[in-house]
């Protein structure tokens, strides 16, 4: 059945909120905070996410290297790149990106996630600048824009997708790159990412996803283009139950990832 | 905690040494801990066995740069002849073997022998030299490992030398009785075969032409495997209660006994070196990993030598582990994390179990004189002999060239 990376994945992020509360969804923050302690248990709640991680991270590494003309097989291929991970959760993406050499800032609206991530990074001897904040607040703080912005399994949890993606895009420097991964709003996605993952496989607690918040690739594209990004066609990330492996495919009907770049200033 | 290396390999036998060399080839730093000093392992009386290296395993040896030094001392297997029948019958005038099979390497898509036979002593010499030459490998021997301690980011083992090693991952290559496996509480399925393996090297008058012969005798398979310089390695599986009396024979009488089984095709025979004997047993670990620990080779499985696949199964473990760890490191992930180890486990468990049980069934099917089973055997062998795809599959199996091949073993 399912291609549901997002299941656990979605726990990545508590919704991004502005001080005025425009995109915040308080119920969602509590939901993910409760799950934060188990982030790093390979056999625990986040097992599917851990299994999904190598293929997703490898894809992101390769895309970043292609964009910046780096050798993906170098020991630290992302050396010196400033990377922002929005909705960092327990640090499942921030930490590997730091190991690959990036200078990582990981933000999450849920304080408990940030504390979990910080504790784990210290144990692993990995340095990540974790902050309990939101994309809106970070942008408002006049932080220098990033070479790479990761926006993984977050948009399906926010109240205002357009506003959120525009904020994220504004955190990318001209010439930089951004990744958006989420779940498509299709019948198949509902059957697998929501129904199967939550109700049948019990990969995720029931109620993790609200299928009405799933985002179609063209909606994400529209929002990103509106923010001045150049958007690539989506790639699919598909779970193959027989081999029990995830693959990057052309099928974007459930889990998909979009790469968008910001043109250099002329 | 400060790490001395990426990976600790416990055990410096043929499995542990190859694991250390293959992992360092992937760019990992390795501490290899061995109970035996390197020089002891190449003494003439340390290990008299030979190892069958399947052609897919040799691809890995080539990639690690070990094959150039081994090739001259490796006996190529161009053909495998399998014959079912009682020894006395086989040489009776007008006798037709009840079953007969021929695997011819020239029918493989790739231009390669089916495998090679190498003396363990020579393998150890070549591996020792490569270990010594490697800057990424530190060999600590003689030393044994104490109780393992795992932390959130590392694994530590105290050594009998007083030193404590810390790394991201521990590879248990500590043999069939693997103390690390036992201490981790990983259980095994195991049983003994009522058979003993008698092993020796035989010099003969005529050229073996690169033909490996396997006679399925009622007491067990009797294999004559081609070595260099008109020599063959003999692997004689005998009923355990009868093996002792054969081993006690004088050299002359022993040669007479093997002549009865060999037949005349290699001319006059003589023993080259001592005779060895090993009890045969089956074991299969129920899990191939523990906390920050991967089991490889004999620590994970031990199978009947009937198909000459035991070591090749270990080579595949090592090559698969290399792929999994390289993928995780490349993605910036912790190589000792349970996700990487579970992936290795899934990859290797099924393949190992199918081969382990397959060889067990083969041995049970062939090591007897039951007329009904003889009929089954001759029908089966006739079928394999006549059906090309079936025969090809068996040849690929013999070449360890089936299943999902790790990159170090791919063509």
UniProtKB/TrEMBL annotation, chain A:
UniProt cross-references to InterPro entries, sorted A to Z: Methyltransf_11 (IPR013216), SAM-dependent_MTases_sf (IPR029063), UbiG_MeTrfase (IPR010233)
Biological or metabolic pathway of the protein: Cofactor biosynthesis; ubiquinone biosynthesis
Biological role stated in the UniProt entry: O-methyltransferase that catalyzes the 2 O-methylation steps in the ubiquinone biosynthetic pathway.
EC number annotated for this UniProt entry: 2.1.1.222, 2.1.1.64
Listed PANTHER family: METHYLTRANSFERASE, UBIQUINONE BIOSYNTHESIS O-METHYLTRANSFERASE, MITOCHONDRIAL
Lineage top rank: taxon: Bacteria
Chain residue ranges for the region called Disordered: 1-22
Gene Ontology biological process terms, A to Z: methylation
Domain Methyltransferase type stretches: 84-179
UniProt KW S-adenosyl-L-methionine keyword: yes
Signal peptide start and end residues: none
CDD domains: AdoMet_MTases (cd02440)
Name of the featured protein: Ubiquinone biosynthesis O-methyltransferase
Binding site for S-adenosyl-L-methionine: 56, 87, 108, 152
Gene for this chain: ubiG
Catalytic EC class: transferase
Organism listed in the record: Aquisalinus luteolus
Family: Belongs to the methyltransferase superfamily. UbiG/COQ3 family.
Keywords: Methyltransferase, S-adenosyl-L-methionine, Transferase, Ubiquinone, Ubiquinone biosynthesis
Catalytic activity line of the entry: a 3-demethylubiquinol + S-adenosyl-L-methionine = a ubiquinol + S-adenosyl-L-homocysteine + H(+); a 3-(all-trans-polyprenyl)benzene-1,2-diol + S-adenosyl-L-methionine = a 2-methoxy-6-(all-trans-polyprenyl)phenol + S-adenosyl-L-homocysteine + H(+)
GO molecular function (one): polyprenyldihydroxybenzoate methyltransferase activity
From TrEMBL, chain B:
Keyword Oxidoreductase applies: yes
One GO term of the biological process aspect: ubiquinone biosynthetic process
Cofactor dependence: FAD
Gene3D superfamilies according to UniProt: FAD/NAD(P)-binding domain
Protein's UniProt keywords contain Cytoplasm: no
Organism superkingdom: Bacteria
One matching Pfam family: FAD_binding_3
Entry keywords, A to Z: FAD, Flavoprotein, Monooxygenase, Oxidoreductase
InterPro entries assigned to the protein according to its UniProt record, in alphabetical order: FAD-bd, FAD/NAD-bd_sf, Ubi_Hdrlase_CS, UbiH/COQ6, UbiH/COQ6_monooxygenase
Gene Ontology molecular function: any one: FAD binding
Pathway membership: Cofactor biosynthesis; ubiquinone biosynthesis
Record domain FAD-binding: where: 5-328
Family from the record: Belongs to the UbiH/COQ6 family.
Protein name: 2-octaprenyl-6-methoxyphenyl hydroxylase
Natural source organism: Aquisalinus luteolus
Phylogenetic classification of the source organism: Bacteria, Pseudomonadati, Pseudomonadota, Alphaproteobacteria, Parvularculales
């Amino acid at each position: 059945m399912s291609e549901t990376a997002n299941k656990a994945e979605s726990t990545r992020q508590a919704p991004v909120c502005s001080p005025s509360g425009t995109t915040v969804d308080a119920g969602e923050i509590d939901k993910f905070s409760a799950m934060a302690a188990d982030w790093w248990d390979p056999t625990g709640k986040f097992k599917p996410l851990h299994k999904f991680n190598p293929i997703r991270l490898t894809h992101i590494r390769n895309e970043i290297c292609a964009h910046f003309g780096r050798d993906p097989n170098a020991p630290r291929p992302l050396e010196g790149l400033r990377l922002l991970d929005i909705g960092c959760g327990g640090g499942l993406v921030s930490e590997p990106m730091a190991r690959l050499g990036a200078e990582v800032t990981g933000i999450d609206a849920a304080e408990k996630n940030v504390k979990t991530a910080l504790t784990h990074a210290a144990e692993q001897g990995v340095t990540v600048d974790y902050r309990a904040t939101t994309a809106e607040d970070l942008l408002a703080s006049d932080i220098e824009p990033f070479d790479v912005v990761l926006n993984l399994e977050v948009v399906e949890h926010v109240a205002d997708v357009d506003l959120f993606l525009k904020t994220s895009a504004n955190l990318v420097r001209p010439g930089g790159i951004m990744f958006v991964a989420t779940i498509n709003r299709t019948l198949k996605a509902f059957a697998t990412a929501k129904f199967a993952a939550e109700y049948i496989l019990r990969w995720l607690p029931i109620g993790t996803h609200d299928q009405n918040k799933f985002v179609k690739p063209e909606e994400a594209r529209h929002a990103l283009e509106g923010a001045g990004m150049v958007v690539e066609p989506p790639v699919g990330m598909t779970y193959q139950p027989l081999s029990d492996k995830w693959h990057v495919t052309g099928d974007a009907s459930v889990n998909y990832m979009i790469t968008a770049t910001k043109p250099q200033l002329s | 905690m400060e790490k001395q290396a990426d990976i600790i390999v416990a055990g410096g036998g043929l499995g542990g040494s190859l694991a250390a060399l293959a992992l360092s080839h992937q760019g990992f730093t390795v501490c290899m801990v061995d109970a035996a000093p390197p020089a002891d392992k190449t003494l003439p009386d340390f290990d008299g066995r030979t190892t069958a290296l399947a052609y897919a395993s040799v691809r890995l040896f080539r990639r690690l740069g070990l094959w150039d030094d081994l090739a001259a001392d490796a006996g190529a297997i161009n053909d495998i002849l399998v014959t079912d029948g009682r020894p006395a019958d086989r040489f009776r005038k007008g006798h037709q073997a009840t079953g007969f099979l021929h695997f011819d390497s020239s029918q493989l898509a790739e231009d390669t022998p089916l495998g090679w036979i190498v003396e363990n002593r020579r393998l150890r010499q070549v591996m020792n030299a490569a270990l010594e030459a490697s800057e990424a490998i530190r060999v600590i021997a003689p030393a044994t490992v104490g109780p393992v301690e795992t932390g959130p980011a590392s694994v530590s083992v105290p050594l009998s030398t007083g030193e404590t090693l810390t790394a991201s991952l521990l590879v248990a290559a500590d043999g069939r009785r693997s103390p690390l496996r036992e201490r981790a509480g990983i259980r095994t399925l195991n049983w003994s075969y009522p058979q003993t393996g008698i092993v020796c090297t035989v010099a003969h008058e005529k050229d073996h032409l690169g033909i490996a012969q396997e006679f399925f005798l009622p007491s067990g398979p009797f294999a004559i495997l081609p070595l260099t310089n008109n020599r063959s390695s003999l692997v004689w599986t005998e009923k355990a209660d009868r093996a002792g009396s054969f081993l006690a024979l004088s050299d002359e009488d022993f040669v007479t006994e093997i002549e009865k089984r060999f037949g005349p095709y290699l001319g006059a025979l003589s023993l080259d070196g001592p005779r060895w004997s090993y009890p045969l047993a089956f074991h299969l670990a129920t899990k191939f990993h523990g906390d920050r620990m991967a089991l490889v080779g004999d620590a994970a499985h031990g199978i009947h030598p009937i198909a000459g696949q035991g070591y090749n199964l270990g080579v595949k473990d090592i090559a698969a582990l290399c792929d999994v760890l390289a993928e995780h490191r490349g993605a910036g992930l912790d190589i000792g994390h349970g996700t990487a180890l579970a992936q290795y486990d899934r990859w290797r468990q099924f393949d190992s179990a199918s081969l382990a049980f397959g060889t067990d069934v083969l041995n049970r099917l062939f090591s007897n004189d039951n007329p009904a089973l003889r009929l089954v055997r001759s029908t089966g062998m006739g079928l394999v002999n006549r059906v090309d795809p079936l025969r090809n599959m068996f040849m690929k199996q013999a070449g360890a060239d089936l299943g999902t091949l790790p990159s170090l073993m791919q063509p």
